[in-house]
Amino acid sequence: MPGGFCDAWEAPADAAVREAREELGLSVQLDRFVGMYIGEYYYQDERLPVLDCFWQASVVGGELTLDETEASEYAWLPLSEPPPMAFATQERALADLVAGRPGGRQ
Questions:
Q1: What is the reported pLDDT for 106?
Q2: What is each CA distance from 84 to 40, 79, 81, in whole angstroms?
Q3: Helix (H) or strand (E) holding 20
Q4: pLDDT band for position 62 (cuts 50, 70, 90)
Q5: DSSP 8-state code for residue 92
Q6: Is 51 helix (H, G, I), strand (E, B) or coil?
Q7: 9, 88, 77: which is closest to 50 by C-alpha?
């Protein structure tokens, strides 16, 4: 699950496409919008609220090339059996995606 923060004035959908390109070297097409989830991020000893947006996407180009400053490995995994995620919002988004329900219910 590539991800990151929006740049100033950047639309979340544009950020999602950019992050996939930066982190994985892939061009993606955003498909189903999974939802928005209120999460948290720790920065400089402070707990900050964040609004995490998730899309299901299709690879449309590029060659998978891992950015080692962002991640140490990659794998294609079945949606029905994901490994533990780094953030609770990722867990909720995957559960909503697999169940086919609208996301963002908290």
A1: 53
A2: 17, 12, 9
A3: helix 12-24
A4: very high
A5: H
A6: strand
A7: 88
Tell me the whole-structure pTM to 2 decimals: 0.89
CA–CA distance, 23 with 1 (Å, rounded to integer): 10
Beta bridge partners, 28, equal 59
H or E element at residue 21: helix 12-24
Domain containing 17 — which CATH number? 3.90.79.10
Does any domain span residue 44? yes
94 lies in some domain:
yes
| Closest C-alpha among 63, 9, 14, 28 to residue 1 | 28
The residues with which 42 forms a beta bridge, in sequence order, are 47
For the chain, the residue count is 106
Kindly report the three-state secondary structure assignment for every residue of 25-43. Answer: CEEEEEEEEEEEEEEEEEE
Condensed to tens digits (0 to 9), the pLDDT of residues 1-39 reads 889 999 999 999 999 999 999 999 999 999 999 999 999
